[in-house]
Design a protein that fits this description.
Helix content is 44%, strand content 21%. With 469 residues, the protein is of the alpha/beta class. It starts with 5 loop residues before the first strand and ends in a 5-residue tail after the last helix. It binds adenosine-5'-diphosphate-glucose.
């Protein structure tokens, strides 16, 4: 029997579901997050399939349906998880694409596995795409896939979206696979980036590194020797704003927010940090600023509290074990110096929470502190703006993609601890009169530019891209 084909195929490293145990048996549960919500509505409209890794090494489970989406698992062996995912994706690409906050490592074995897995994704997509279908590829783990897919299926429209920054050419050049990565992406018709600066970095890399390949760049379009054209532009991602605002307004979430504040002794100022425990997120810099403010007496632990949620992430990699140790040591020291019995200065939570609890935290916090050293976008900043009322404040790093959109935030350079301290103090001390217009302007921005708008714009740009000669 011929395989069923689809008009829209989404490819991402992970499927939008996790395998969890429920009542003694193993079931699939939809992973949280705006991307899944956004793609779900697009996919239901267009009868789409999603291909990705299930999260478990070994044989791939059979295709299945979940929430109206056709899910097609791609198998990864344990070695491929080590070499393609932990190695090339997170040991080579992730540091280079985030300003080399930690040094990048390169291994030829990793590069070979990356090629192999990207080729497999392309083969699965080629088998599932209907004639003339649209294939939407996601993120830095799949940069070789567009070229492989174009070779197999010249008839399909291929788009790729980069969730993380695209580095300046001086850093990108360090990658031994640099030409292959660019050629891989040029298999697509349209490339979406978080910021204009990211698209510009990509175009500059093509101009500088592929000149000998008869590749020419005009405006935001790259033309290959065979005439195929690829357009690169900014399409900033967002959140399901209406859903977050609605959830935050429910009695259950409002009551829980009040309870959180009560449990902390009703502090005058409640600060909040929410990040994946990643060295790019600037958690150490944030803690250092707050520790100094407490030590100098500019903040008092009796009336100012910080909740830091640090979601477990990539725990098998040494750099992630290191950042966890550093953060936990610092939290321990701050509490040792400033906590009172039953009243920690920093409440540190190293686990995942349901959406309702996250919303309650956003509602409860007077000041949201988002201080990445480099971040593609940062959805947490947008979630806070959507969830909190007018009497809130967002401290936001200039190095988060969100800073180009949320201009009314209290912007800071997290490397500059002295100024970051001043910015945090300003946000804490701001009057309701100063805060309200900033919060309203930012909320309007995320209402107008929500994740549904993002997905529609990406697909429209992909459909309109020049593509084949
Ligand atoms: P991430 O680096 O994962 O994403 P981010 O944009 O902050 O970062 O998104 C994290 C999401 O996870 C948010 O929706 C947040 O609410 C949720 N979350 C965090 N901690 C949680 C916890 N403990 N429990 C439950 N939920 C939690 C990458 C890029 C970003 C880019 C996104 C989307 O690194 O720059 O914004 O993709 O493109």
């Amino acid at each position: 029997m011929p395989q069923e084909t689809f008009d829209l195929v989404v490819a991402a490293n992970r499927l939008p579901v996790d395998r969890v145990r429920e009542g003694g048996r193993s079931v699939w549960r939809r992973s949280p997050g705006g991307l899944v919500t956004a793609m779900e509505s697009v996919m239901n409209d267009r009868d789409g399939a999603w291909i990705g890794w299930s999260g478990v090494a070994g044989k791939a489970p059979a295709p299945f349906e979940q929430d109206g989406m056709h899910l097609h698992p791609v198998a990864l062996s344990a070695e491929e998880v080590r070499d393609y995912y932990e190695g090339f994706s997170n040991g080579s690409l992730w540091p280079i694409y985030h300003d080399v906050i930690v040094p990048a490592s390169f291994k030829r074995r990793w590069q070979a596995a990356y090629e192999q897995v990207n080729r497999r994704f392309a083969e699965v997509a080629a088998g599932l795409a209907a004639p003339g279908a649209t294939v939407w590829v996601h993120d830095y783990q799949l940069q070789r896939m567009p070229q492989f897919l174009r070779e197999l299926r010249p008839d399909v429209r291929i788009g790729w979206f980069n969730h993380i920054p695209f580095p300046p050419v001086e850093l990108f050049m360090q990658l031994p696979a640099r030409d292959a990565l660019l050629q891989g992406l040029l298999g697509a018709d349209f490339l979406g980036f978080q910021r204009r600066a990211d698209a510009q970095n990509f175009l500059r890399a093509c101009r500088q590194l592929l000149a000998d390949e008869q590749v020419s760049v005009r405006g935001d379009v790259v033309r290959m020797a065979n005439g195929h054209e690829t357009r690169a532009a900014a399409v900033p991602i967002s959140i399901d704003t209406a859903a977050m605002t609605e959830l935050a307004a429910t009695t259950a979430v409002q009551d829980r927010a009040a309870e959180i504040r009560r449990q902390l002794g009703n502090p005058t100022h409640l600060l909040l940090g929410v990040d994946r425990l990643d060295y790019t997120k600037g958690i150490r810099h944030r803690l250092k600023a707050i520790e100094e403010l407490l030590r100098e007496g500019q903040l008092a632990a009796t009336d100012t509290k910080l909740i830091q949620v640090a979601t477990p992430s990539r725990e098998r990699l040494a750099a992630y074990q290191q950042i966890r140790d550093d953060v936990e040591l610092t939290v321990g020291r701050i509490n040792g110096d400033h906590a009172h019995i039953g009243a920690p200065a920093v409440t540190y939570l190293h686990r995942s929470f349901p959406r309702e609890e996250m919303a309650a935290l956003f509602v409860a916090a007077d000041v949201m502190v988002v201080t990445p050293l480099r971040d593609g976008m940062n959805l947490v900043a947008k979630e806070y703006v959507a969830a909190h009322d007018d009497d809130g404040a967002l401290v936001l790093s200039e190095f988060a993609g969100a800073a180009t959109e949320l201009k009314q935030a209290y912007l800071c350079n997290p490397h500059d601890i002295a100024r970051t301290k001043q910015t945090i103090l300003r946000a804490i001390e701001a009057t309701a009169f100063e805060r309200a217009p900033r919060m309203r302007a930012m909320r309007r921005q995320v209402q107008r530019h929500d994740v549904q708008h993002w997905a529609a714009r990406f697909l429209a740009d992909l459909a309109a891209a020049p593509g084949q000669p």
